[in-house]
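testing teh design pipeline on a random one, pls ignore if ur not involved
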């Protein structure tokens, strides 16, 4: 998976990065299946980095989209990600991730903004690595590739939070993430080429 940076002040740039990560998922035959995408209620794509020596944390940023009743996808909402945990782990981990979410988990993480608790295992060395999350993590499937040197497992909490400033800059006014994801916001002209490219590729994944 291509490790793309989401630490940008433009939501349109995050759309470009999200597209590259999704393309990498498809090209490498990763764990997310066509059926998973067809049944998804939401999709979050983000980049994260962190360090651990017994206890540690991660910070990341990306975007989230929701599927509407007619099968099309919402506009993107910018999000930030944090993880704090403890356990026998050591190293530095940098990874890009795609989560395909069921309705209940999507509502919990991105509408109600509830922290999720669970256990995660990670192992990374050089350009290859894996990261697995279990017990309470909000996913149907998750595709992840890590870089760095990192081994061990931790128990902790992951939290996704809407980036209000980035959303306001893209949509031209202050908006709530739930408004964006429920289709209550008018489509902006600026940045729509990047959004449409993302929509087109999501449609391709389901064919």
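output:
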């Amino acid at each position: 998976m291509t490790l793309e940076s989401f630490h940008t002040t433009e939501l349109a740039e995050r759309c470009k990065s999200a597209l590259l990560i999704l393309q990498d998922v498809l090209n490498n035959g990763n764990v997310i299946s066509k059926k998973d995408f067809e049944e998804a209620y939401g999709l979050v794509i983000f980049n994260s980095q962190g360090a651990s020596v017994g206890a540690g944390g991660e910070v990341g940023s990306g975007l989230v989209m929701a599927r509407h009743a007619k099968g099309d996808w919402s506009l993107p909402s910018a999000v930030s990600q944090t993880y704090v945990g403890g356990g026998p782990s050591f190293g530095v981990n940098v990874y890009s991730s795609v989560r395909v979410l069921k309705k209940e988990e999507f509502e919990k993480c991105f509408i109600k903004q509830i922290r999720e608790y669970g256990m995660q295992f990670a192992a990374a060395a050089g350009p290859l690595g894996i990261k697995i999350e279990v017990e309470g993590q909000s996913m149907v499937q998750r595709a992840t590739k890590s870089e760095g040197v990192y081994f061990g497992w931790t128990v902790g909490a992951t939290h996704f939070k809407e980036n209000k400033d980035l959303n306001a800059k893209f949509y031209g006014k202050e908006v709530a993430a739930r408004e964006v994801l429920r289709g209550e916001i008018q489509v902006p002209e600026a940045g729509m080429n990047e959004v449409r490219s993302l929509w087109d590729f999501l449609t391709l994944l389901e064919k």
